[in-house]
Amino acid sequence: MSDTVLRTVVRRETHSPRTVAMLVVVVLLLLALAYAAVEIILNLVGAQPLLVGPGDALNAVVAAPTALMPVAFIVGGVVLAVLGLIVLILALGPGRLSRHEMAGGERAVVVDNGVIASALAQHLSNDSGIARDDIVVGVAHRTVDVTVSPPVGIPIDEAQLRRIVEEEIASYNLTPTVRTRLRVERPDTKESR
Predict the structure, then answer these.
(1) Do 69 and 115 belong together in one domain?
(2) pTM metric for this prediction
(3) Between 154 and which of 20, 83, 112, 150 could a Cys-Cys bridge form, CB atoms 3.0 to 4.6 Å apart?
């Protein structure tokens, strides 16, 4: 499989398409056009408009600069600008799925963040002797957050735990790379919450 095809497959598996956002915008535009068409047809056959006839709507738009206060135009412009910015961000920004790529030579390996978190927690438990239930790992797009809650009386070497976590994450060769955060919750800090 060529490198270009492999990159395309990995991108499809790690990024979500913007199909839903696009469909919502298209449906809203189609509804607005359908409403305008219905109003025009009703006006042509001489029937009562559903909301506002095309002539009345055009007259309202023409009279708006003198009928409305400038503040209304500013507020309307800001609202339209914010809506446009949201649609633009949705259209251009990549949607991210909770997955990472692991470098595997010529093969592509896409791993769910939950699998990475579970594997890291189990590895940390095995290497440190801390019970698996006392370790909570969360994996986000750019960070891995590890929280260790050791039982009372168990001495913890934070530097060793940090080394274990960083070495294990480094061995995964994740793309995009992640930074790790380690927190050790002592029993006295859990009670003070």
Answers:
(1) no
(2) 0.61
(3) 150
